[in-house]
Amino acid sequence: MAKDYYNVLGIDRKASQDDIKKAFRKLAQKHHPDKGGDETKFKEITEAYAVLGDDKRRREYDAYGQAFPGGAPGGAGSGFGGFDFSQFQQGFGGGNVEFDFGDIFGDLFGARGNRGQTPRGRDISIDLELPFKDAVFGTTRTVLLGKVSTCDLCHGSGAKPGTELETCAICNGAGRVHETRNSILGQFTNVRVCPDCEGTGKIPKEKCSACHGHGVRRKEEEVVISVPAGIDDGEMIRMPGRGEAIRGGIAGDLYTKVHVKPNPTFTREGAQLVMHLPMKLTDALTGTMVTIQTLEGKTLEVKVPAMKQPEELLRIRGRGVPLEGRRGDLLIRLTVALPQKLSGKAKDAIKQLQSEGL
Question: Residue 99's CB: how many other CB atoms inside 10 A?
Protein backbone atom coordinates (compact mmCIF):
# COMPACT_ATOMS: atom_id res chain seq x y z
CA MET A 1 0.00 0.00 0.00
CA ALA A 2 1.36 3.42 -1.02
CA LYS A 3 2.39 5.71 1.78
CA ASP A 4 0.44 8.84 2.57
CA TYR A 5 3.16 11.42 2.01
CA TYR A 6 0.94 14.25 3.18
CA ASN A 7 0.50 12.48 6.49
CA VAL A 8 4.25 11.80 6.72
CA LEU A 9 4.96 15.55 6.51
CA GLY A 10 1.93 16.45 8.62
CA ILE A 11 0.40 18.75 6.00
CA ASP A 12 -2.91 19.21 4.21
CA ARG A 13 -3.39 18.01 0.63
CA LYS A 14 -3.94 21.62 -0.44
CA ALA A 15 -0.65 22.77 1.13
CA SER A 16 1.46 25.18 -0.91
CA GLN A 17 5.04 24.42 -1.95
CA ASP A 18 6.20 26.86 0.71
CA ASP A 19 4.22 24.97 3.36
CA ILE A 20 5.69 21.67 2.14
CA LYS A 21 9.22 23.04 2.32
CA LYS A 22 8.69 24.46 5.81
CA ALA A 23 7.26 21.17 7.07
CA PHE A 24 10.15 19.18 5.62
CA ARG A 25 12.75 21.60 7.01
CA LYS A 26 11.29 21.27 10.50
CA LEU A 27 11.14 17.46 10.40
CA ALA A 28 14.57 17.12 8.73
CA GLN A 29 16.22 19.14 11.46
CA LYS A 30 14.50 17.01 14.08
CA HIS A 31 15.26 13.57 12.58
CA HIS A 32 18.56 14.09 10.73
CA PRO A 33 20.99 11.29 11.75
CA ASP A 34 23.85 13.78 12.08
CA LYS A 35 21.75 15.46 14.78
CA GLY A 36 21.06 12.19 16.59
CA GLY A 37 17.74 11.56 14.86
CA ASP A 38 16.06 8.43 13.50
CA GLU A 39 17.60 7.45 10.14
CA THR A 40 14.53 5.47 9.06
CA LYS A 41 12.21 8.36 9.84
CA PHE A 42 14.56 10.76 8.07
CA LYS A 43 14.49 8.62 4.91
CA GLU A 44 10.70 8.51 5.06
CA ILE A 45 10.25 12.28 5.27
CA THR A 46 12.91 12.82 2.58
CA GLU A 47 11.04 10.39 0.33
CA ALA A 48 7.83 12.33 0.95
CA TYR A 49 9.47 15.65 0.18
CA ALA A 50 11.12 14.30 -2.97
CA VAL A 51 7.64 13.61 -4.34
CA LEU A 52 5.52 16.44 -2.94
CA GLY A 53 8.23 19.05 -3.34
CA ASP A 54 8.28 18.54 -7.11
CA ASP A 55 5.15 19.76 -8.92
CA LYS A 56 5.26 17.07 -11.63
CA ARG A 57 5.77 14.17 -9.21
CA ARG A 58 3.13 15.58 -6.90
CA ARG A 59 0.57 15.60 -9.72
CA GLU A 60 1.42 11.98 -10.53
CA TYR A 61 1.15 11.01 -6.87
CA ASP A 62 -2.22 12.78 -6.46
CA ALA A 63 -3.55 11.09 -9.60
CA TYR A 64 -2.12 7.57 -9.30
CA GLY A 65 -0.98 7.18 -5.70
CA GLN A 66 2.68 7.11 -6.72
CA ALA A 67 5.25 9.02 -8.76
CA PHE A 68 7.14 7.54 -11.71
CA PRO A 69 10.90 7.89 -12.21
CA GLY A 70 10.42 7.32 -15.94
CA GLY A 71 8.29 10.42 -16.16
CA ALA A 72 4.97 8.73 -17.10
CA PRO A 73 2.48 6.19 -15.73
CA GLY A 74 3.47 2.66 -16.58
CA GLY A 75 7.18 3.55 -16.94
CA ALA A 76 9.94 1.29 -15.75
CA GLY A 77 10.76 0.97 -12.11
CA SER A 78 8.77 0.59 -8.96
CA GLY A 79 8.09 4.29 -8.46
CA PHE A 80 8.19 6.08 -5.15
CA GLY A 81 5.80 3.55 -3.63
CA GLY A 82 8.91 1.45 -2.96
CA PHE A 83 11.32 4.40 -3.19
CA ASP A 84 14.65 3.24 -4.51
CA PHE A 85 17.27 5.79 -3.46
CA SER A 86 19.43 5.05 -6.47
CA GLN A 87 16.50 6.05 -8.70
CA PHE A 88 15.98 9.05 -6.46
CA GLN A 89 19.53 10.22 -7.20
CA GLN A 90 19.22 9.53 -10.95
CA GLY A 91 15.96 11.42 -11.07
CA PHE A 92 17.72 14.52 -9.84
CA GLY A 93 20.69 14.58 -12.18
CA GLY A 94 23.00 11.68 -11.38
CA GLY A 95 25.32 11.51 -8.43
CA ASN A 96 24.46 14.87 -6.86
CA VAL A 97 21.07 15.76 -5.44
CA GLU A 98 19.93 19.07 -6.93
CA PHE A 99 16.46 19.32 -5.42
CA ASP A 100 17.06 22.58 -3.52
CA PHE A 101 18.44 20.63 -0.56
CA GLY A 102 21.25 23.19 -0.24
CA ASP A 103 18.80 25.64 1.30
CA ILE A 104 16.95 22.95 3.23
CA PHE A 105 20.06 21.57 4.93
CA GLY A 106 21.86 24.90 5.26
CA ASP A 107 21.16 25.06 8.99
CA LEU A 108 22.04 21.42 9.54
CA PHE A 109 25.46 21.64 7.89
CA GLY A 110 26.31 25.13 9.16
CA ALA A 111 25.94 26.99 5.86
CA ARG A 112 26.10 30.74 6.05
CA GLY A 113 23.42 32.49 4.07
CA ASN A 114 21.39 31.44 1.01
CA ARG A 115 22.28 31.93 -2.62
CA GLY A 116 22.07 35.56 -3.61
CA GLN A 117 21.36 36.70 -0.08
CA THR A 118 23.25 39.77 1.13
CA PRO A 119 25.33 38.97 4.23
CA ARG A 120 24.00 40.58 7.38
CA GLY A 121 25.74 41.34 10.66
CA ARG A 122 24.57 40.09 14.04
CA ASP A 123 21.80 41.81 15.94
CA ILE A 124 22.57 43.15 19.41
CA SER A 125 20.18 43.14 22.35
CA ILE A 126 20.66 45.28 25.45
CA ASP A 127 18.59 46.23 28.50
CA LEU A 128 17.91 49.81 29.60
CA GLU A 129 16.43 50.79 32.97
CA LEU A 130 14.48 54.06 33.07
CA PRO A 131 12.82 56.13 35.79
CA PHE A 132 9.03 56.17 35.52
CA LYS A 133 9.02 59.85 34.53
CA ASP A 134 11.44 59.36 31.62
CA ALA A 135 9.36 56.48 30.29
CA VAL A 136 6.23 58.66 30.34
CA PHE A 137 7.68 61.80 28.76
CA GLY A 138 10.48 60.31 26.67
CA THR A 139 14.22 60.87 26.89
CA THR A 140 17.55 60.06 25.26
CA ARG A 141 20.27 57.83 26.63
CA THR A 142 23.85 57.38 25.46
CA VAL A 143 25.25 53.88 25.89
CA LEU A 144 28.76 52.59 25.25
CA LEU A 145 28.77 49.34 23.27
CA GLY A 146 31.66 47.04 22.48
CA LYS A 147 30.79 45.66 19.05
CA VAL A 148 32.07 44.82 15.59
CA SER A 149 31.95 48.02 13.54
CA THR A 150 33.09 49.18 10.11
CA CYS A 151 36.78 49.98 10.11
CA ASP A 152 37.38 53.74 10.26
CA LEU A 153 40.69 53.51 8.41
CA CYS A 154 39.67 51.57 5.28
CA HIS A 155 35.93 52.35 5.49
CA GLY A 156 35.05 48.69 5.23
CA SER A 157 37.08 47.71 2.15
CA GLY A 158 39.73 45.79 4.09
CA ALA A 159 42.45 47.33 1.92
CA LYS A 160 45.27 49.59 2.98
CA PRO A 161 44.32 53.19 2.08
CA GLY A 162 45.57 54.00 -1.42
CA THR A 163 45.75 50.36 -2.54
CA GLU A 164 43.37 48.38 -4.74
CA LEU A 165 41.22 45.27 -4.45
CA GLU A 166 41.68 42.23 -6.69
CA THR A 167 39.45 39.32 -7.66
CA CYS A 168 39.42 36.49 -5.14
CA ALA A 169 41.24 33.46 -6.52
CA ILE A 170 39.29 30.97 -4.41
CA CYS A 171 35.79 31.82 -5.69
CA ASN A 172 36.79 33.67 -8.89
CA GLY A 173 34.89 36.73 -7.73
CA ALA A 174 31.59 34.91 -7.13
CA GLY A 175 31.72 35.32 -3.36
CA ARG A 176 30.44 31.75 -2.95
CA VAL A 177 32.08 28.34 -3.02
CA HIS A 178 30.50 24.94 -3.64
CA GLU A 179 31.09 22.28 -1.02
CA THR A 180 30.17 18.64 -1.59
CA ARG A 181 29.34 16.37 1.36
CA ASN A 182 28.49 12.71 1.51
CA SER A 183 25.37 11.63 3.37
CA ILE A 184 23.02 8.66 3.57
CA LEU A 185 21.22 10.03 0.51
CA GLY A 186 24.35 10.37 -1.59
CA GLN A 187 26.29 13.55 -2.29
CA PHE A 188 24.91 16.97 -1.44
CA THR A 189 26.36 20.13 -2.92
CA ASN A 190 26.11 23.04 -0.56
CA VAL A 191 26.85 26.67 -1.41
CA ARG A 192 28.49 28.80 1.26
CA VAL A 193 30.24 32.13 1.63
CA CYS A 194 33.82 32.15 0.44
CA PRO A 195 36.05 32.18 3.53
CA ASP A 196 38.82 34.19 1.84
CA CYS A 197 36.86 37.19 0.54
CA GLU A 198 33.95 36.79 3.02
CA GLY A 199 31.39 36.88 0.22
CA THR A 200 32.59 40.09 -1.47
CA GLY A 201 34.43 38.46 -4.38
CA LYS A 202 37.36 40.84 -3.80
CA ILE A 203 40.46 40.68 -1.62
CA PRO A 204 42.87 43.52 -0.86
CA LYS A 205 46.30 43.55 -2.47
CA GLU A 206 47.57 45.04 0.78
CA LYS A 207 45.58 44.56 3.97
CA CYS A 208 44.45 47.41 6.16
CA SER A 209 46.68 47.68 9.22
CA ALA A 210 43.76 48.41 11.54
CA CYS A 211 41.36 45.60 10.63
CA HIS A 212 43.89 43.19 8.97
CA GLY A 213 41.82 42.98 5.79
CA HIS A 214 38.46 42.16 7.37
CA GLY A 215 36.88 45.59 6.80
CA VAL A 216 35.45 45.47 10.32
CA ARG A 217 36.93 45.42 13.79
CA ARG A 218 35.74 45.31 17.38
CA LYS A 219 35.72 48.63 19.14
CA GLU A 220 33.74 50.68 21.63
CA GLU A 221 31.10 52.92 20.15
CA GLU A 222 28.71 55.43 21.72
CA VAL A 223 25.11 54.99 20.61
CA VAL A 224 22.39 57.53 21.37
CA ILE A 225 19.06 55.84 22.05
CA SER A 226 15.96 57.96 21.59
CA VAL A 227 13.24 56.75 23.96
CA PRO A 228 9.76 57.76 22.74
CA ALA A 229 7.22 59.23 25.15
CA GLY A 230 4.79 56.71 26.58
CA ILE A 231 7.00 53.64 26.25
CA ASP A 232 5.86 50.80 28.49
CA ASP A 233 7.77 48.37 30.65
CA GLY A 234 9.12 45.47 28.59
CA GLU A 235 8.81 47.20 25.21
CA MET A 236 11.60 47.06 22.63
CA ILE A 237 13.27 49.90 20.72
CA ARG A 238 14.70 48.77 17.36
CA MET A 239 17.50 50.74 15.73
CA PRO A 240 18.18 49.36 12.22
CA GLY A 241 21.82 49.13 11.21
CA ARG A 242 23.20 49.81 14.69
CA GLY A 243 24.11 46.20 15.40
CA GLU A 244 27.34 44.50 14.35
CA ALA A 245 28.84 45.24 10.95
CA ILE A 246 29.99 42.68 8.37
CA ARG A 247 32.26 43.18 5.38
CA GLY A 248 30.40 43.40 2.10
CA GLY A 249 27.00 43.26 3.78
CA ILE A 250 24.62 45.24 5.94
CA ALA A 251 24.88 45.78 9.66
CA GLY A 252 22.49 44.07 12.05
CA ASP A 253 20.02 45.89 14.27
CA LEU A 254 20.21 47.07 17.87
CA TYR A 255 17.32 46.03 20.11
CA THR A 256 16.89 47.80 23.46
CA LYS A 257 14.51 46.30 26.00
CA VAL A 258 13.16 48.94 28.37
CA HIS A 259 12.63 48.28 32.06
CA VAL A 260 10.65 50.98 33.88
CA LYS A 261 11.26 51.61 37.56
CA PRO A 262 8.10 51.92 39.68
CA ASN A 263 7.11 55.36 41.01
CA PRO A 264 6.04 55.77 44.66
CA THR A 265 3.13 58.08 43.73
CA PHE A 266 2.03 57.30 40.19
CA THR A 267 1.09 54.20 38.24
CA ARG A 268 -0.03 53.87 34.65
CA GLU A 269 -3.12 52.50 32.94
CA GLY A 270 -2.58 52.91 29.20
CA ALA A 271 -2.60 56.65 28.50
CA GLN A 272 -3.84 57.47 32.02
CA LEU A 273 -1.68 58.33 35.01
CA VAL A 274 -3.14 57.19 38.32
CA MET A 275 -2.41 58.45 41.84
CA HIS A 276 -4.03 57.66 45.21
CA LEU A 277 -5.12 60.46 47.52
CA PRO A 278 -6.35 59.59 51.04
CA MET A 279 -8.90 62.12 52.38
CA LYS A 280 -9.62 62.99 55.99
CA LEU A 281 -13.13 62.03 57.02
CA THR A 282 -14.21 65.66 57.48
CA ASP A 283 -12.79 66.69 54.09
CA ALA A 284 -14.47 63.73 52.43
CA LEU A 285 -17.84 64.77 53.91
CA THR A 286 -17.60 68.49 53.18
CA GLY A 287 -15.22 68.75 50.23
CA THR A 288 -11.96 70.69 50.14
CA MET A 289 -9.10 72.09 48.07
CA VAL A 290 -5.90 70.03 47.83
CA THR A 291 -2.49 70.78 46.38
CA ILE A 292 -0.86 67.96 44.45
CA GLN A 293 2.43 67.69 42.58
CA THR A 294 2.18 66.41 39.01
CA LEU A 295 4.64 63.93 37.54
CA GLU A 296 6.46 66.72 35.71
CA GLY A 297 7.04 68.46 39.07
CA LYS A 298 4.41 71.23 38.89
CA THR A 299 2.03 72.03 41.74
CA LEU A 300 -1.66 71.92 41.00
CA GLU A 301 -4.65 73.13 43.02
CA VAL A 302 -7.49 70.65 42.80
CA LYS A 303 -11.04 71.13 44.10
CA VAL A 304 -12.34 67.95 45.68
CA PRO A 305 -16.14 67.85 46.02
CA ALA A 306 -17.85 66.15 48.94
CA MET A 307 -17.51 62.42 48.51
CA LYS A 308 -20.62 60.28 48.19
CA GLN A 309 -18.87 56.90 48.22
CA PRO A 310 -15.95 55.51 50.29
CA GLU A 311 -13.91 55.52 47.06
CA GLU A 312 -14.30 57.93 44.16
CA LEU A 313 -12.40 58.88 41.03
CA LEU A 314 -11.44 62.42 40.10
CA ARG A 315 -10.31 63.07 36.51
CA ILE A 316 -7.99 65.89 35.45
CA ARG A 317 -7.85 66.04 31.68
CA GLY A 318 -4.60 66.40 29.73
CA ARG A 319 -2.27 65.54 32.60
CA GLY A 320 -1.61 61.91 31.71
CA VAL A 321 0.72 60.05 29.31
CA PRO A 322 1.57 61.61 25.91
CA LEU A 323 0.60 59.07 23.25
CA GLU A 324 0.02 59.42 19.49
CA GLY A 325 -0.14 63.21 19.45
CA ARG A 326 -2.45 63.56 22.42
CA ARG A 327 -2.14 63.32 26.16
CA GLY A 328 -4.16 61.14 28.47
CA ASP A 329 -5.70 62.13 31.80
CA LEU A 330 -4.63 62.10 35.42
CA LEU A 331 -6.91 59.95 37.56
CA ILE A 332 -6.99 60.64 41.29
CA ARG A 333 -8.40 57.79 43.31
CA LEU A 334 -9.94 59.32 46.45
CA THR A 335 -10.23 57.17 49.53
CA VAL A 336 -11.41 57.97 53.07
CA ALA A 337 -8.65 57.65 55.65
CA LEU A 338 -10.26 56.69 58.98
CA PRO A 339 -8.64 58.12 62.13
CA GLN A 340 -6.67 55.71 64.31
CA LYS A 341 -7.46 57.54 67.58
CA LEU A 342 -10.30 59.80 68.70
CA SER A 343 -10.22 62.40 71.43
CA GLY A 344 -13.11 62.73 73.86
CA LYS A 345 -14.27 65.85 72.05
CA ALA A 346 -14.21 64.06 68.72
CA LYS A 347 -16.18 61.16 70.16
CA ASP A 348 -18.83 63.56 71.43
CA ALA A 349 -19.05 65.13 67.97
CA ILE A 350 -19.48 61.72 66.37
CA LYS A 351 -22.24 60.83 68.83
CA GLN A 352 -23.95 64.07 67.80
CA LEU A 353 -23.75 62.91 64.18
CA GLN A 354 -25.15 59.53 65.21
CA SER A 355 -28.14 61.21 66.79
CA GLU A 356 -28.84 62.87 63.43
CA GLY A 357 -28.75 59.50 61.68
CA LEU A 358 -25.31 59.92 60.08
Answer: 17
